[in-house]
Design goal:
5 helices, 8 strands, about 160 residues, 3-stranded mixed beta sheet, alpha+beta, 3-stranded antiparallel beta sheet
């Protein structure tokens, strides 16, 4: 409403003359479970600990595959030349966005909308002063490190203490 003129496309995304807008409500992706990485991790035994994946892979959370498909389709549209990260200002918003970008795969430039207020004036001002997404890479790395550390500690400590 703050930018005006958007037409809904089956409530999957919205479009006006300047922007195509869609949404990610919460985390759409999650890290693979240990047994999805290697069947050896299916049994909880001390000889399989610590679990230290060579690569951390993401998968859609239950019920989110359609949302990921829609986002990927929009990102890959030929008329989309820049992606705007309008997720919540903060570490988790940055993580949600970067996980989606990593999962769908794109090399299109990224701009960051950083809002501290959701008033119409603040939104319009924010869109007039979009920042280069590279400025927020350290925040993205911090978010990813926190996520991976949570996984490593959670999976390994849960199994070790249970055993």
């Amino acid at each position: 409403a703050a930018l005006g003129g958007f037409q809904s496309h089956d409530d999957e995304y919205y479009e006006n003359d300047d922007y195509v807008c869609t949404f990610a409500v919460g985390h759409l992706l999650e890290l693979l479970e240990p047994e999805e990485i290697d069947v050896a991790y299916k049994r909880w035994t001390l000889d399989t600990l610590p679990i230290l994946p060579a690569e951390f892979k993401l998968k859609p959370k239950q019920g989110q595959s359609d949302r990921i498909r829609i986002i990927k389709k929009l990102i890959n549209r030929a008329d989309i030349d820049t992606i705007i990260n309008a997720c919540d200002a903060g570490r988790e918003g940055e993580l949600i966005f970067r996980e989606v970008i990593k999962f769908v795969g794109t090399d299109k430039p990224i701009k960051r909308l950083w809002l501290q207020s959701m008033t119409a004036d603040a939104i319009r001002t924010g869109f007039r002063s979009l920042e280069d997404g590279k400025k927020y890479e350290p925040l993205g790395y911090a978010a990813e490190c926190r996520s991976l550390a949570d996984w490593l500690i959670g999976m390994n400590a849960s199994r070790a203490l249970t055993i």
